[in-house]
């Protein structure tokens, strides 16, 4: 047997030791049937969540708890729904584009921090002769 069990009577703990790579591989290759299934919300549940989101996009814990009980949805799923919905709204507000940290914009400034080229490089371009004397 590749798994040994040890019971320490003093500490009353049960410890398993895995002795082989085979057991580790077997554990990692377990079927996905033990994986929890995704919660599918009904149209009515989504309508209630959306209407509450319009009122308050950051509900307090009491409101989330009430929604959880009223809709028979775990509290954690309510929290995640609001988090995802806020992210969706932010993406829609930003036009769906990703922003890079220092994307150049037309007037020679950088979007992040609004630093001009002149502030980044104090000498003129193209370099003038005075720099090479």
Helix content: 40-55%
Supply Rg.
29 Å
Q: Count the beta strands.
A: 2
Q: Specify the CATH architecture of the domain at 40-90.
A: Orthogonal Bundle
Indicate the CATH class of the domain at 40-90. Mainly Alpha
What structural category do the secondary elements indicate?
Answer: mainly alpha
CATH fold descriptor of the domain at 40-90? Arc Repressor Mutant, subunit A
Strand content: 5-15%
Could you name the CATH homologous superfamily of the domain at 40-90? Homeodomain-like
Report how far the terminal alpha carbons are from each other.
Answer: 83 Å
Q: Count helical runs.
A: 5
Low-confidence stretches: none
Give an overview of the whole structure.
It is a single chain. The protein has 133 residues and is mainly alpha-helical. The chain is 41% helix and 9% strand. Helix 3 (61-71) crosses helix 4. The longest helix has 19 residues, at 75-93. The protein is flat. The mean pLDDT is 75.
């Amino acid at each position: 047997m590749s798994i040994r069990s040890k019971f320490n009577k003093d500490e009353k703990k049960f410890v398993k030791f895995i002795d082989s790579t085979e057991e580790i591989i077997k554990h990692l290759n377990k079927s996905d049937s033990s994986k929890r299934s995704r919660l599918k919300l009904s149209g009515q549940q989504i309508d209630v969540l959306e209407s509450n989101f319009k009122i308050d996009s950051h509900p307090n814990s009491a409101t989330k708890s009430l929604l959880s009980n009223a809709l028979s949805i775990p509290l954690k799923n309510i929290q995640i729904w609001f988090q995802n919905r806020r992210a969706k709204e932010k993406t829609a507000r930003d036009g769906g584009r990703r922003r890079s940290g220092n994307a150049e914009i037309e007037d020679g400034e950088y979007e992040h921090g609004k630093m001009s080229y002149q502030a980044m490089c104090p000498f003129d371009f193209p370099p003038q002769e005075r720099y090479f004397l």
